[in-house]
Design brief:
Radius of gyration: 33 Å
CATH class of the largest domain: Alpha Beta
Structural class: alpha+beta
Shape: elongated
Helix content: 25-40%
CATH topology of the largest domain: Beta-lactamase
CATH architecture of the largest domain: 3-Layer(aba) Sandwich
Number of strands: 29
Length: about 675
Amino acid sequence: LYVQFFQQYRGKYWNQRTEGFQIRQDTLRAMRGNIFASDGSLLATSLPTYEVGIDPRIAKDEYFAKYSDTLGVVMARIFRDKSARDYSDLVRSARKSGRKYVLMNHRRITFQERQQLLTCPFFRSDKKIPARGGALRAYYERYQPFAQMAKRTIGNLDPKTNKGLIGLEASFQSQLAGKDGVGLVEVLAGGVRKPVDDNQGMKPEPGLDLYTTLDVNFQDMAETALKTALTSYNADKGCVLVMDVATGEIRAMANLSRLKDGNYYETFSHALAGRTDPGSTFKLASMMALLEEKAVSPGQMIPTGGGSIRYRNVTIQDAKRGGYGIITAQEVFEKSSNVGIHLMMKDYFYTRPDLYCQYLRKFHLTEKTGIHMKGEVNPVIYNPDSKAWSKTSLAFMAHGYEMQITPLQMLTFYNAVANDGRWVRPMLVKQVKLANEVIEETLPYTAPDPIASPGVIRQVKRMLEGVVERGTAKHIASPHYKIAGKTGTAQKIVNGLYQEGRYYTSFIGYFPADKPKYSCLVMVDSPHGSNINLLMAGSVSAPVFKEVADRIVAYDIRMHAPLRTHQRVASSPADLKAGYADDLHIISTELKLDSQPSAEGYVRRLDSHRWQSQLNRPDQVPDVRGLPLRDALPLLENRGFRVLLAGAGKVTDQSILPGTALAGTRKQITLTLQ
């Protein structure tokens, strides 16, 4: 539409301008906007490349004779495929034959090469010789600096139309695209298009920049842990999601699928579009509905018997052979007893299916999350009015079957529990900017009504903690922080039937459990192995959750604040201009500073005294706070540390206390920059 308006408005001009010439209107591609991570790291950008050409007729004879050899040298140096003489002869021959335009090379040059070229004859700006003959035509190629990282979430472009196909590139196409301009080109023999200098064209307008909530370090942690597990279990696919509990900001979204070559790639968004039976992670919804109706209490005894029970034409079994006997409702949840949840649901909701479905709606499980991202699919949860509903539907639904829900929808539900019942919409983009001006901003959205009463939230939180302390995920318990969550192992449907030995495994939870900061979901689909018992969620997905959580806790400085406040750390003294020698010695001893006097006398001047922190000894973690990054990195890397960064600027904090003995210290440290 933009170009059509221009054609109408300038139609007479273009007709006169092109009459008698092979001149055509040409689209000038707009520079597409950048996509940034939460710390300002570039996730996607458009790098310009340039087609190099020259009109050999334009330069005057004297200028051409003087610089044609120089032009050949420059071309040979840039393209490295022909000699300088070859390029010089090419231009001379074209000038002699009267050719209007010579394409110097089919390879396009980079921006850095363009900058070099603009200092050379025929291309450099020179007011005395405005017509030089050199011509550069710009093209833009999309580039993702982190290669495969979050590739499906970021998305890609249609090479023909330059429009986003999937991911953020498609979801925010109108903001990123900008507005193309219009210029003139002269079409020469062989279809070569020579740009025509003309001030009447319409310049392109660059696109807007996206600032996402993704953290590149979290994303790296998630992808690394997931890929290791998928490879270890020869699994088909998997995903990891990390969300900020309070705001719903997605910090990591990893989606991996195994292709024919046996490797894993980001090709499909399992998080948004991978609907499946969630399995036992859905027991949280069933338990919350029961507790809200006061149909059961956590301490109520449930006779699960020998681990198998028949209901109508359906056999419901527990994973443990022989069953769990008589256990509490809390233990039913912790041990993930299918029989136990069936008995509790049967006694109350099997005769009230509509009421149960009302709770699922209250939990936001029957709707999309509404994340501002194309590709999210609707969950499929049947109700008594559905044609697919049967007399055994609730028996399956109670423990996560006969439904189709995406990982993101399940995580958002668990996140609401971690957030004390407040449901927040997941978000992936915070701001849309033009340079430094905020054009659009997405604020956290919290649903007006809580998903459950405070009492029920407290009860299920204790149950989720119990799963990790005593239940199906007890081996991922951490001595340093508390994890809460639930395992889920669902049989896969193959040819319309649930297949023994083919599992969809997941673990959904949050941490630290006593003050939730992040919620996380791990899904591993179709792990393979000879021992079926080792293909359950507790063995497959839960350890991935633990690995991701451990690394996040080590990385996120804010989670270490209580630790730092308990210890005083010495730092450089104030600017002491002068003082009594004995007093300065006492001060340096108290502050644990090495005092190295370089002059004698009653009074020591600033320039006659050197201070050295005892915390920067070679056998201890150095104090790099206040240092620029270029100074801090060598100090840490020389001691064998792998350094992770948060922010930009000078170091304001470090995840391991200065002065900590190197022996036994984990060799990974995070620096906060500001």
